[in-house]
Every structure is written in structure tokens, then in C-alpha cells.
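Practice problem 4.
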């Protein structure tokens, strides 16, 4: 598999998994852990949201950023574990 193909596949995986997790989180905000109110107010002020639609967009961006970082970290951990398992044998 070429390096370009692997990097495209990795980018698709990171974006796709982040979007799916963000959608699941966004659809069940009442069941998921809440973001601390002080952080939420700071983030809304930082994003410059003035109405409910802009606040919802800020929530979406926040969720995408958080899940992108989490998916990236888990993917990196899985990559290193697979690589280590392959070299141990």
C-alpha cells in the first residue's frame, strides 16, 4: 500500500470517526457528561456566538475538536500496540 493511500485512509478514518462520535454526542446531550459551565461560557464568548444557532454551531465545533483529538490518540495508541506486537514475535 502506498504512503499516499495510507495517509488518505488515515485522514478519512480520523474525520469519519470524529464526525460519527460528534453526531452521537450531539444527539444525546442530556445523557452525556456535561461540560463545566464556566468553560462553556468561556468557549461561547471565545467563539463570539450571539444567538442559539451560533451557540449550537460552537457546540458542534467543540465536539469535533474533542473527538478528533480522542480518535487521534486512540489511533496512535493502536498503531503503536500493533507495531510492538508485530516486532515482538
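Answer key:
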Amino acid at each position: 500500500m502506498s504512503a499516499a493511500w495510507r495517509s488518505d485512509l488515515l485522514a478519512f478514518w480520523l474525520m469519519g470517526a470524529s464526525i460519527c462520535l460528534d453526531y452521537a454526542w450531539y444527539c444525546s446531550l442530556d445523557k452525556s457528561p456535561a461540560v463545566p459551565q464556566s468553560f462553556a461560557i468561556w468557549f461561547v464568548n471565545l467563539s463570539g456566538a450571539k444567538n442559539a444557532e451560533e451557540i449550537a454551531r460552537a457546540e458542534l465545533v467543540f465536539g469535533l475538536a474533542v473527538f478528533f483529538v480522542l480518535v487521534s490518540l486512540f489511533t496512535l495508541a493502536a498503531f503503536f500496540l500493533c507495531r510492538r506486537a508485530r516486532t515482538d514475535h
